C-alpha cells in the first residue's frame, strides 16, 4: 500500500496533458520562402556574434541574418575579427559622416528600410552591418517592393536590443570593440534527439509491460474492441486492491473543454506564483510516481521486503519499504527544485517525469477501442487548435506561450528535455508529457488486449502500434 494516495495522480493528469507540444528554447531559423527579386534570396540563418572589449572576450550574442547581403562563413576559423564602429546618423538613413572603412557598422533600427541602411554602410566602406532591434526578438529582414536591383555585398545581421545597446554603450565610452560574425551549421539530427526518442518509446513500452513483468500481475481482464468493459463502479475497477481509472467517451469530451479553459487561464494569468504552483504539483506527482516505481521494483527483486508492513497514524497498515522510499523520493524532488536552473537539472526532471508517466499509464486505462478513438480524436483537435489555429485568434500560439512559462524564466516542467550535445547553438530538445501519455494509453491497451486474447507478438496489435509510434516520433 502506498503512503501517498494513488488517486492523487489523477488530479495531475490534466496538467500533464496540457503540455502536449513543446517548443525549442532557441531562436527560430526557419525559412518561409524567398523574395522574388535578385539579391534578396538568402536563407535566414542564426548568427554567432562574438565580441571583444579592449581585447577581453565578451558574451557571444545570437543574431539573425537578412534576406540580402553576402553569406557568412560557417566556421569561426573562416570569420574575420573586425573592429565595430558607430555611425552618424545613428540609424544610418543617410550617408555616414563617421569613418566606417573596414569596420562593422553598428546602427539602430528604424527611420528607413533595412536595405537602405545596408547600401549606405557599403558605400561608406563598412565590412558588415549589425542592426540593433527595438526589442529582444529577432526580426526577419526582407527586401521592399522597390528593391528590384539590390546589390549588397556585405553581411547584414540583426541582434537583440539589450545585447546591441550594450555594445553601443561601450563604443560611446571609448572602448575598442571587435566583432566576429559566423553562422555554423546545425546538425540534421543531434544525438540528443535520439536519446529523447528512446526515452519516449521506452517509457511507453515499459509502462505497457510493467504490470505483467515488473509488478507480476495477471492479465485476466477480458477486453472487447467495441463494447465497454464491465465494472462495478461505472469507471473504476478495483483489481487486487489497485485503483484503476477507466476513461470513458464522455470523459474525452470533458477533457477538451476543461483543458481548454485551464489553458486559457494559464495563458492570461501566467505568473511566477502560478508557475511555482505547477512545479509543486509536478513534484508531488513525481514523488508518488518514483515511489510507486521503486517500491514495485524492489519488491520484485526481494519479495520479503514487499510483505513487511508497519502501522502508521492516519494511514493504517503500510509497507515498511514505503516508509523508507518516500523520504528518498521527497529529497530527490526537493534537490531538483533547488537546482532546476542548473545545466544538469534535466536529469532529475526526466527521472521524475518518466516515473510519473509510468504510474499514470498504470492507473488510467482505456476500456475499448471506441473510447480510444474518441480520446485521441479529441486530443488531436485540442492540440491542433491551441498550437496552430490559436495564433489567428490570440496573436500567438497559446500552447507554446504556456509551455514557455512566465517572463521570470520559470517554465512548466511537464515535459522531457535533453540538451543538444553537438549543436553549436545549444538549447534543448523537448517532448511534452501529452505526446507520450496519449499514445501510451492506446499502446498499453493494445498489449492488455493481445494478452487477454492470447495473441502472439507478431499477430497482435502491440508491436505494430509501438512501431507506428516510434516511426511517428522520427517525423
UniProtKB/TrEMBL annotation:
It is a multi-pass membrane protein. Keywords: Endosome, Glycoprotein, Hydrolase, Membrane, Signal, Transmembrane, Transmembrane helix. GO terms for molecular function: aspartic endopeptidase activity, intramembrane cleaving. The chain crosses the membrane at residues 195-215, 252-270, 276-298, 318-338, 344-364, 371-394, 425-445. Gene3D superfamilies: 3.50.30.30. Residues 89-167 form the PA domain. It comes from the Eukaryota. One of its GO terms (cellular component) is endosome membrane. Residues 1-24 form the signal peptide. GO terms for biological process: membrane protein proteolysis. SMART domains: PSN. It is found in: Endosome membrane. PANTHER family: SIGNAL PEPTIDE PEPTIDASE, SIGNAL PEPTIDE PEPTIDASE-LIKE 3. Intramembrane-cleaving aspartic protease (I-CLiP) that cleaves type II membrane signal peptides in the hydrophobic plane of the membrane. Belongs to the peptidase A22B family. This is PA domain-containing protein. The gene is LOC125523465.
Amino acid at each position: 500500500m502506498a503512503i501517498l494516495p494513488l488517486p492523487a495522480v489523477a488530479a495531475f493528469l490534466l496538467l500533464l496533458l496540457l503540455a502536449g507540444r513543446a517548443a525549442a528554447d532557441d531562436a527560430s531559423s526557419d525559412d518561409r520562402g524567398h523574395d522574388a527579386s535578385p539579391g534578396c534570396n538568402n536563407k535566414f540563418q542564426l548568427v554567432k556574434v562574438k565580441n571583444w572589449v579592449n581585447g577581453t572576450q565578451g558574451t557571444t550574442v545570437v543574431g539573425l541574418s537578412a534576406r540580402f547581403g553576402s553569406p557568412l562563413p560557417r566556421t569561426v576559423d573562416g570569420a574575420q575579427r573586425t573592429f565595430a564602429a558607430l555611425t552618424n546618423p545613428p540609424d544610418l538613413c543617410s550617408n555616414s559622416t563617421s569613418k566606417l572603412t573596414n569596420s562593422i557598422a553598428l546602427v539602430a533600427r528604424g527611420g528607413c528600410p533595412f536595405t537602405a541602411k545596408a547600401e549606405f554602410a557599403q558605400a561608406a566602406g563598412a565590412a558588415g552591418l549589425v542592426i540593433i532591434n527595438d526589442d529582444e526578438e529577432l526580426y526577419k529582414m526582407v527586401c521592399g517592393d522597390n528593391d528590384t536591383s539590390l546589390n549588397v555585398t556585405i553581411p547584414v545581421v540583426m541582434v537583440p536590443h539589450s545585447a546591441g545597446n550594450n555594445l553601443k554603450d561601450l563604443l560611446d565610452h571609448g572602448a575598442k570593440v571587435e566583432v566576429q560574425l559566423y553562422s555554423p551549421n546545425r546538425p540534421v539530427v543531434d544525438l540528443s534527439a535520439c536519446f529523447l526518442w528512446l526515452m519516449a518509446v521506452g517509457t511507453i513500452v515499459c509502462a505497457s509491460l510493467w504490470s505483467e513483468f515488473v509488478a507480476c500481475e495477471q492479465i485476466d481482464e477480458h477486453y472487447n474492441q467495441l463494447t465497454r468493459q464491465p465494472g462495478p463502479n461505472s469507471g473504476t475497477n478495483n483489481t487486487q486492491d489497485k485503483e484503476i481509472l477507466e476513461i470513458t467517451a464522455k470523459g474525452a469530451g470533458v477533457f477538451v473543454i476543461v483543458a481548454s479553459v485551464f489553458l486559457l487561464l494559464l495563458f492570461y494569468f501566467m505568473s511566477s506564483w502560478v508557475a511555482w504552483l505547477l512545479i509543486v504539483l509536478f513534484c508531488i506527482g513525481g514523488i508518488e510516481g518514483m515511489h510507486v516505481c521503486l517500491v514495485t521494483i524492489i519488491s520484485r527483486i526481494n519479495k520479503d521486503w514487499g510483505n513487511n508492513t508497519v502501522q502508521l497514524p492516519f494511514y493504517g497498515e503500510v509497507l515498511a519499504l514505503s516508509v523508507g522510499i518516500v523520504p528518498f523520493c521527497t529529497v530527490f524532488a526537493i534537490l531538483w527544485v533547488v537546482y532546476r536552473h542548473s545545466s544538469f537539472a534535466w536529469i532529475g526532471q526526466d527521472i521524475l517525469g518518466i516515473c510519473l508517466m509510468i504510474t499514470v499509464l498504470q492507473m488510467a486505462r482505456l476500456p475499448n477501442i471506441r473510447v480510444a478513438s474518441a480520446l485521441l480524436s479529441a486530443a488531436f483537435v485540442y492540440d491542433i487548435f491551441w498550437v496552430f489555429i490559436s495564433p489567428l485568434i490570440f496573436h500567438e500560439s497559446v500552447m507554446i506561450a504556456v509551455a514557455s512559462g512566465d517572463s521570470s524564466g520559470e517554465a512548466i516542467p511537464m515535459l522531457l528535455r535533453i540538451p543538444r550535445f553537438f549543436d553549436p547553438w545549444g538549447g534543448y530538445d523537448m517532448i511534452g508529457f501529452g505526446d507520450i501519455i496519449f499514445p501510451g494509453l492506446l499502446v498499453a491497451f493494445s498489449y492488455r488486449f493481445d494478452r487477454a486474447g492470447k495473441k502472439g507478438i507478431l499477430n497482435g496489435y502491440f508491436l505494430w502500434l509501438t512501431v507506428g509510434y516510434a516511426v511517428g516520433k522520427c517525423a
